TrEMBL record:
<dbReference type="InterPro" id="IPR012292">
    <property type="entry name" value="Globin/Proto"/>
</dbReference>
<dbReference type="Pfam" id="PF00042">
    <property type="entry name" value="Globin"/>
</dbReference>
<dbReference type="GO" id="GO:0005344">
    <property type="term" value="F:oxygen carrier activity"/>
</dbReference>
<dbReference type="GO" id="GO:0019825">
    <property type="term" value="F:oxygen binding"/>
</dbReference>
<dbReference type="InterPro" id="IPR001433">
    <property type="entry name" value="OxRdtase_FAD/NAD-bd"/>
</dbReference>
<comment type="similarity">
    <text>In the C-terminal section; belongs to the flavoprotein pyridine nucleotide cytochrome reductase family.</text>
</comment>
<keyword id="KW-0001">2Fe-2S</keyword>
<dbReference type="InterPro" id="IPR017927">
    <property type="entry name" value="FAD-bd_FR_type"/>
</dbReference>
<dbReference type="GO" id="GO:0051537">
    <property type="term" value="F:2 iron, 2 sulfur cluster binding"/>
</dbReference>
<keyword id="KW-0813">Transport</keyword>
<keyword id="KW-0349">Heme</keyword>
<comment type="similarity">
    <text>Belongs to the globin family.</text>
</comment>
<feature type="domain" description="FAD-binding FR-type">
    <location>
        <begin position="138"/>
        <end position="241"/>
    </location>
</feature>
<dbReference type="InterPro" id="IPR039261">
    <property type="entry name" value="FNR_nucleotide-bd"/>
</dbReference>
<feature type="domain" description="Globin">
    <location>
        <begin position="1"/>
        <end position="133"/>
    </location>
</feature>
<keyword id="KW-0479">Metal-binding</keyword>
<dbReference type="InterPro" id="IPR009050">
    <property type="entry name" value="Globin-like_sf"/>
</dbReference>
């Protein structure tokens, strides 16, 4: 699909600077074609277009990687079961998407671009439908909040337990969460902060951004033990390669600690030979909410080290500076499997450090909160 991939990426440049218009046109056209689809979406649509575009961007950047393309789209198809999307809806969405692309691109659009998107969308929908059809799990799990602990004004750690059906995940994966009591049909993704366990309890670390984040705001400020959430199927590939004998580097910023903590917990269940280095950064010492828990793991496992750092706290008795710069000072990391999790800016900076260090791309996996 080399030519298709080139045409998709080339044509995307015509619309990527006008994403609001693109998503607005898509949803207007979609609901005009099938008004019944409107009830599948939240009352307030702000932010909904961003998730559509994130999926499109990911798809067009993996189209020339057949294995990654197939895996991502099958997972996406399974995930979309939570929205009650049916096979007949895919054709309608394809028509709306092509119409939105043509309208937003304007005079720069041509027949080659049109055919490339038709072919790509056909491949996308086939794989998503196959993923949905092959999934025997429920579209989502009802889960009860067991514990809820606040750290400052904007961060919370909570545990939940799936009811009725067991939920299986791998350390490093993330799930979509809905808080139906406060924001029905609005889903947000959160990394699971613990390794799989026999009792099916999941831990989440949630930070609510200033002036945004309906679901995160509810999870931090309003949810309490006993409340019910909905949790969708796990996704993501920032998982451990158990066949690898390389040492491990984990870099976490803020609540990006969640998947890193899960990876360390899984390593604790079997690792005896691999050194594991965790770098954990935040703006100030008060924001290093998970440091005590990491230090408990260090005390129990001699192969584990943790290096905390603060970027904006001169009184901190430890490493100072952005976590990516701290990681650079401790390199080289060329012989390590590297896992990076945090804000888009932090992940981008750390990946740049690892690339400059000569770490092969196949040894690096990352999870970012926001667009790269």
């Amino acid at each position: 699909m080399g030519d298709v991939a080139r045409l998709l990426k080339e044509s995307w440049t015509l619309v990527e600077e006008d994403r609001d218009r693109l998503s607005g046109h898509f949803y207007a056209r979609l609901f005009l074609l099938d008004p019944e689809l409107r009830k599948l979406f939240p009352v307030q649509m702000s932010g909904q277009g961003d998730r559509l575009l994130e999926a499109i961007i990911t798809a067009i950047h993996t189209v020339d990687d057949p294995e990654g393309f197939d895996e991502f789209l099958r997972s996406l198809g399974r995930d979309h079961r939570k929205y009650h999307v049916e096979a007949r809806h895919y054709e309608t969405m394809g028509v709306a998407l092509l119409d939105a692309l043509r309208s937003t691109a304007g005079d720069g659009w041509n027949l080659e671009y049109d055919q490339a998107w038709r072919d790509a969308y056909a491949a996308i929908s086939i794989r998503m439908l196959a993923g949905a059809a092959a999934d025997d799990d429920p579209p989502f799990w009802h889960a009860e909040v067991l514990t809820h602990e606040r750290y400052g004004s904007d961060t919370a750690v909570l545990t939940v337990q799936a009811l009725q059906h067991p939920l299986s995940w791998r350390a490093g994966q993330y799930v979509s969460v809905e808080v139906p009591r406060y924001h029905p049909r609005v889903w947000r993704t959160y990394s699971v902060a613990n390794a799989p366990n026999d009792n099916g309890v999941l831990e989440f670390h949630v930070r609510t951004p200033t002036g945004a984040g309906w679901v995160s705001g509810a999870l931090v400020r309003r949810v309490k033990p006993g409340d019910l959430l909905r949790v969708a199927a796990p996704m993501g590939s920032m998982t451990l390669d158990r066949s690898s004998e390389r040492d491990v580097l984990c870099v976490a910023g803020g609540v990006g600690l969640a998947p890193v903590k899960a990876l360390v917990e899984e390593l604790a269940s079997y690792n005896r030979t691999r050194w594991v280095h965790v770098f954990y950064g935040a703006r100030a010492e008060a924001d290093l909410y998970g440091l005590d828990g990491l230090r408990e793991l260090v005390a129990a496992h001699p192969w584990l080290s943790v290096t905390p750092a603060c970027s904006d706290d001169p009184d901190f008795d430890g490493e100072l500076g952005d976590i990516s710069d701290v990681v650079a000072r401790y390199g080289p990391w060329t012989t390590h499997d590297c896992y990076v999790s945090g804000s888009a800016r932090m992940v981008r900076a750390t990946l740049r450090v690892l690339a400059e260090d000569g770490v092969p791309p196949q040894q690096t996996r990352y999870d970012t909160f926001g667009n790269l």
